[in-house]
Each structure stands twice: as structure tokens, then as C-alpha cells.
Amino acid sequence: MLHSRSAQAGTCRYLTAITMMVLLGLPCPTVGAGDRIFSIPIGDLRLWSEKIIVPIDVVITGNSGVHPKDQDCEMHFGARSEAYKGEPAGLVLEPMNLCVQPFFGKTQYAKVDWTNFGSMLKGKTAHVKGVPRIWPEHLVGNESTSNPHHAVELHPVTFLTRGTVNRDFSSFIFDPPDYEGGLKPETALRVLTKTVVSVSKQDDMAQVSFDSGRIGNFTFLHFTILKNTIEEAEGGHRMDGEVQGEANEIISVRLVTVAGSPVDKAVAKLKNRSGQRFGMDALVLLSLSPEALLKAALESTGGDVKVPNPFQLIVYGEEDTED
Known about the structure:
Layout: H1 16-24, E1 35-41, H2 42-50, E2 54-63, E3 77-80, E4 90-93, H3 111-121, E5 125-138, E6 150-162, E7 165-168, H4 185-194, E8 196-202, E9 205-211, E10 218-226, E11 231-233, E12 236-244, E13 250-258, H5 262-270, E14 277-288, H6 290-299, E15 305-306, E16 311-317
Helix pairs in contact: 2-6
């Protein structure tokens, strides 16, 4: 269920979940105005905890233009799927680095190739694969065909199939030159330390509350990989990591690298290196961890369960590591 929480007791915004609460005679929520509330099927969280890249059939509702490098260098595709029953129900598909990568089969870059590609897909059914990113930045407010209300993205998109044509975006996953993300590292650290996430199980759904003073996407961070936690999963590698916060506070995070990317190949090699801790400076995308959300949902008996270490960082580059 999706609803906004008001700081004034008894005040409700008439979103889908609030309407249902009124019909059921339930009280309106009255906690902090900063809370973002959304829900994800527990079955999806279970699948996303097992695999890094997941498939889904979608109808593409529209596309953005190609964003310049300082705005993430992507094109965004809005989508809907009968297979996804979360709330909000929208999805956004985000292939990487379309502002610098030539179109498939070409050696020279032309932005019009990508805009034509996007226009061709509007209203079409496609089979896509990518990394499910859980991030409640666009639950409410203005929406468009390329940016429906959503809490889930495939970000990055790795494959898109339309008819007999398969487009492989896995080699597009890298840190473009001179881009260090829209979030300053110190701001990202505040997001990682100040955000409070809780989950309650409602039938077969995990209702997630995300309370943060700031929210963002890409940032450049230094983190440490714990070698003995590196696990190969379908679509890449998953591992535990640590980020040093203010006053030497250690922030535990999950890290994900995506098959086909240079950084994923580098992580695979770490398993054969001496040492147990490896530092890396890399462009990362902030996300919630499906594993952490699933664990909290399964512990819930209807009430809220606070999620410890709720973050997953999707790592793009650099692939250089140091002992």
C-alpha cells in the first residue's frame, strides 16, 4: 500500500492506500512528514535477494531524452507490467551511458540514434533484464510517461528484447569520464547514517517506510570490500562492505556488481588475492537492499520492524582496488 503521512493528526491525502484505509475504517497515519511509504510483493523481494539481474515483460509507456553527463548520462523509460503488483505500480528502466555510447552496430556517437530508439519503443511490449533498484524518490508528485510514480527501477538495464532484436547494455555499465555523481560524498554519508527504514508484513506484501531528510542517486565513495563475503549470484556478485562515516563511524552496506562490467570482473579476481579487506573508490548508485527488506518482512507479525543496515550500493566503477 502507498500513502503519505502527515504531521497533523487525522489528515489524510487521498492516495490509493488511504482510500482503502477509509473504506476499512482504519485511522489515518500521523507520524513524521518525511516518511515515504510504499509496498513490494514479498515474492519479488525473495527473487531479488537470490538474483542480481532479473527478467520482466513490460509495456513501455514513454521515454525521456538522453540526459547529459552531469545529469546521469541515461535515458529513462517508463513502464508497466502485469507481473509487478507493487504500489506504486510504475516501473522505470534506465540503461547507462547513452550520452557517450554509440548506438548498436555504429562507431560514431549520434544522440538522435538513441532518441529514435526510444520513440520506436513507446507503447510496445518488451522483455527486459536488469538490476532491481528500490528507491522511493518518485512515489508522488508530477509524473510523466517516462517517469510514472514508482519505487522500483531496473537500474541499470542490461538487456532489452523486442521481437527478434536483442539489445545488450551490459557493457555500458561503467563510470563515465569526469562524472562523480550528483550527490556529494558527505551528503551521501548523511543519507546512509540518518535514514530510518522499517517494514511491516501485510499479507503477501512488504510495506516499507523510508524516512530520510535527503534522497539522491549517484555518488562517488570510498568503501572496503570484505573478501570472505563475496558471493557469485545470477547476474554478478554480492558482498558485504563498509563505508567510514563521520567520527570514524563504520557504516555496513551490501555491495552489488553487475555481470559484464569491468568492476564485476575485478571483484571476481579479488577472491584469488591475498588479504581479506580491499579498498575501492567507485561510482555507486544508492538503493535499498532486497535482502534486508525481506528479512524484516519475514520477522514482522503485522507491526513495523526496523531494518538494520538497509542499504545496497550498486557499484559502477572504478575497477582499481587496493589492499
